[in-house]
């Protein structure tokens, strides 16, 4: 009797486990087969997710088709979203807020990374803080980016220096800034992490300050700096496609965290040195974000309030952060 009862319980447990596994499999998001066109800069870290999705055919797995459209500046990306030539953009949160404030509804559907970029100086530079940039030549990848805003905010608060007025600014895409730095035309430059890794590996450059350290020093909470923003009208009309993309991204996250081969392959495509690839991989892995949390919208609001208070509306370009930019509805 006792043995029979145990066998019955064991059989029931197995059936329950099989049923649960089947339910999870059945519940996996599946898109409608439609295309998601993603705007991205091919030279940046944002090129990693679509590379992994295509390599492992995750769009096919989850029932949608991913296409990528390259952009080199904010105006191009914004125009594509406005004209509905693209459904999605990988962008920093402040730039996304600016797009929304400009009348183009965008919703964050999945995170990507926290604050990742740096300010580099030549290895023999005597510059030690943002205050030392006074009277120097500084490269910035965008005068409307969070990186530049937070640098100004920090310099004003800590050193009472207006960087916008007291440095000579050269604005250009990060690859061009790297070239200008190599030619000795800049005393310091903002740099994407994808390029900074190789520059640091060359031993010709060192870090003056990281955007993360500036952010933390001002008491700003860590939030997704880059995230996947979807046109709100598309998200409303194709929620299953959005959920499918988010599921694919979460698998990308797991692959990037554990698979070294994808870093080698993509790193070589990006022309990174072996040491640069390792630096790039380790830094990105530390900063990847898999899912939004309920606290992140409040953290973004706090971040915006601090930056607005220090930098001012004239620098930011608008005065109110769009509410609930980050949606948990598709996770």
UniProtKB/TrEMBL annotation:
Lineage top rank: taxon: Bacteria
Protein name: Uncharacterized protein
């Amino acid at each position: 009797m006792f043995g029979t009862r145990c066998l019955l319980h064991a059989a029931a447990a197995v059936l329950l486990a099989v049923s649960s596994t089947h339910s999870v499999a059945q519940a996996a998001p599946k898109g409608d087969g439609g295309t998601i066109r993603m705007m991205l800069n091919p030279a940046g870290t944002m090129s990693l997710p679509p590379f992994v999705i295509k390599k492992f055919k995750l769009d096919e797995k989850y029932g949608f088709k991913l296409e990528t459209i390259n952009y080199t500046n904010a105006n191009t990306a914004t125009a594509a979203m406005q004209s509905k030539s693209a459904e999605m953009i990988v962008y920093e949160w402040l730039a996304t807020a600016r797009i929304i404030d400009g009348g183009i509804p965008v919703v964050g559907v999945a995170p990507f990374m926290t604050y990742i970029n740096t300010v580099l100086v030549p290895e023999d530079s005597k510059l030690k803080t943002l205050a030392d940039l006074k009277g120097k030549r500084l490269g910035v990848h965008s005068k409307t980016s969070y990186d530049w805003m937070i640098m100004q905010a920090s310099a004003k608060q800590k050193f009472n220096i207006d960087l916008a007025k007291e440095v000579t600014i050269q604005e250009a895409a990060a690859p061009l800034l790297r070239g200008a730095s190599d030619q000795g035309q800049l005393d310091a430059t903002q740099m994407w992490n994808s390029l900074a890794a190789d520059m640091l590996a060359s031993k010709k450059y060192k870090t003056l300050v990281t955007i993360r350290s500036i952010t933390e020093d001002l008491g700003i909470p860590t939030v997704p700096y880059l995230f996947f923003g979807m046109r709100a009208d598309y998200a409303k009309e194709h929620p299953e496609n959005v959920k499918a993309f988010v599921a694919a991204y979460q698998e990308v996250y797991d692959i990037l965290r554990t698979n070294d081969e994808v870093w080698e392959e993509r790193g070589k495509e990006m022309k990174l040195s072996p040491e640069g690839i390792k630096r790039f991989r380790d830094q990105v892995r530390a900063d990847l974000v898999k899912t939004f949390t309920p606290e992140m919208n409040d953290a973004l609001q706090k971040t915006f309030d601090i930056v607005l208070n220090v930098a001012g509306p004239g620098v930011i370009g608008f005065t109110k952060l769009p509410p609930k930019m980050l949606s948990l509805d598709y996770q």
